[in-house]
Amino acid sequence: MRLLVSVRNATEAEAAVEGGADIVDAKEPAHGALGRVTDDVLKSIRAQVNGQAPVSVALGDVGSDNIADAATAAARAGAAFVKIGFAGCRRGLGVDDLRTAVGAIGSAPLVLVAYADYDRAHAPLPEDVVSLAHETNAAGILLDTFDKHGPGLTTLMTLRALVSFVSTAKRAGQFVAVAGRLTIQDIEQVWDTGADIVGIRGAACEGGRNGIVVVDRIRMIRRYLDSKAELAFPTI
C-alpha cells in the first residue's frame, strides 16, 4: 500500500518527501475536501519534489470554476494524476452530464472521487462513481469524506463495506485510494481493504488538518506501513 500525503505548499512537500511519502498530493485544505492550490503553488511543489515522488493535484468538484483549465495546467506541470469530485451533482446532473463534464477535463490522468458521506455532499452514490470511472476510462478512484468536520471514513463505512467497495472498483480496472480523516489507528483497518493507496492530511499534521505537515508524523505512518508489508510479504 502506497502512502499519499496532501500538502499545501513547497515546505510541506519537502517534509512529505523526507518522511517517506510515495505520492505528494497538492491540495489546499482550507478550501474543502478537494481544495485547489494556485498554479504558482503547484509549480513550487513540483520544483521542491523534483521527481522524488509523483505529484497528484486536487481540482475540486465538477462545476468548480475553470476546472478544465486547471486540469490542463496540472498536466503541463507534470501531474501524475488529477482528482475531481461530484459534490452537488446527485440531483443537478444526470449520468450523461457527468460523462460530458469528465470528458471536458482534458488529457491529465483522472481519479474520480466518491464520497462516503455522499448524502452530506449531495453527491452520487459511491458505486455510481465506480461505474462512471469504468465508462470514462479513469485511472483510479478515491473514496474520501466530504465533510472534514464530520465522521471519518472508518466510522461512516464498516470494514465489510470498504472491502466490497475496493474489490468492486478493482474489478473495474481502476486503482483504488482511500482517505477521509484517517488516523494511524484506522490504517490497520484500511490495510485490510486491499486498497492500493492510503491518503492522509490531518494525521500528518501538527495541529490537525489545517496545521502543518511534519516529518516525524509521516515517518511513524511510513514505518507502520512498512512493517505491515514485511509481515504480508516476508523476504526469504
Would you kindly provide a written description of the structure presented here, covering whatever features stand out?
The protein is an alpha/beta fold and 236 residues long. It has a single domain, classed as TIM Barrel. It is built from eleven helices and ten strands. It has helices spanning 10-19, 39-49, 67-76, 89-92, 95-103, 118-121, 126-135, 153-156, 159-171, 184-191, 215-232, and strands at 2-7, 23-26, 55-61, 81-85, 110-115, 140-144, 175-178, 197-200, 205-206, 212-213. Helix 1 (10-19) links the parallel strand 1 and strand 2 (23-26). The protein is globular, with a radius of gyration of 16 Å. The model has no long low-confidence stretch (mean pLDDT 91).
The gross shape turns out to be globular
Q: How much of the sequence is in beta strands?
A: 15-25%
The CATH architecture designation is: Alpha-Beta Barrel
Number of helices: 11
Q: Which stretches are poorly predicted, pLDDT < 50 over at least 5 residues?
A: none
Observed structural traits:
TIM Barrel, 8-stranded parallel β-barrel, 236 residues, alpha/beta, two-stranded antiparallel ribbon
Give me a quick take on this structure.
This protein is α/β, with parallel strands linked by helices and 236 residues long.
Task: List the topology elements.
Layout: E1 2-7, H1 10-19, E2 23-26, H2 39-49, E3 55-61, H3 67-76, E4 81-85, H4 89-92, H5 95-103, E5 110-115, H6 118-121, H7 126-135, E6 140-144, H8 153-156, H9 159-171, E7 175-178, H10 184-191, E8 197-200, E9 205-206, E10 212-213, H11 215-232
Parallel strand pairs: 1-2, 1-8, 2-3, 3-4, 4-5, 5-6, 6-7, 7-8
Antiparallel strand pairs: 9-10
Helix pairs in contact: 1-2, 1-11, 10-11
